[in-house]
Amino acid sequence: xxxxxxxxxxxxxxxxxxxxxxxxxxxxxxxxxxxxxxxxxxxxxxxxxxxxxxxxxxxxxxxxxxxxxxxxxxxxxxxxxxxxxxxxxxxxxxxxxxxxxxxxxxxxxxxxxxxxxxxxxxxxxxxxxxxxxxxxxxxxxxxxxxxxxxxxxxxxxxxxxxxxxxxxxxxxxxxxxxxxxxxxxxxxxxxxxxxxxxxxxxxxxxxxxxxxxxxxxxxxxxxxxxxxxxxxxxxxxxxxxxxxxxxxxxxxxxxxxxxxxxxxxxxxxxxxxxxxxxxxxxxxxxxx
Length: 288
Known about the structure:
The protein has one domain (2-189, 221-278). The longest helix has 33 residues, at 255-287. It has helices at residues 2-15, 18-24, 29-47, 57-79, 82-89, 92-104, 110-124, 133-161, 170-185, 197-222, 227-233, 236-249, 255-287. Helix content is 78%, strand content 0%. It is an all-alpha fold.
């Protein structure tokens, strides 16, 4: 279990570099979505042999959710601040909480259900900053990306539960999903600015490390971790994403976004620590 958690944290660390890299790239959100998914798909196809298996229906459905996740996040990152984009996509635990019981047989606990209105309060604060019309659109796109990410997490977890030897699984879904995202965005590549050498270098980094290697760590970690716990552990990403973006791209999140993000992260920290504290108290009472 420790190895699985470390893999999930490694994925979150790599994911967190997206905001800064995308802000430093002059390409449009659609161009970035196309380029990084193309690189990630080729990378995974070449280095992961099991990714070349013929996809099943569950693999295809998960691939569609994954393609929506990575494509919408890249677009939202260009339409709103990096902090808003990542914090709002990180609503995924809320949707996992609501869906995992029915779809995975992992029903939420009473404490998890009590966390829902706290998450809702935090998320509502993102829309109180003074936003341009484009930023409002970017915020909404990021929320949809959060739903897509939750669906992706559930899809990967469900495939891990029913995995059969020699059958296509999460790696195949990653390759297929990246292919779908790249093909969907490719017709709009010419509508954006011409790529500079530095932009192509950033796309190479985003595809190989921030997307390809990160999701490879994620699918291997989530295979042995409950969907809700996995979605909470990777919330290290929204903690670090605005930090890298401020340090390398000079972008400051708005005050209400910081307040909302703090509420979401504190609620998540509570959800991670509460079960461990309850077990510790239970052991202490039993020993007494």
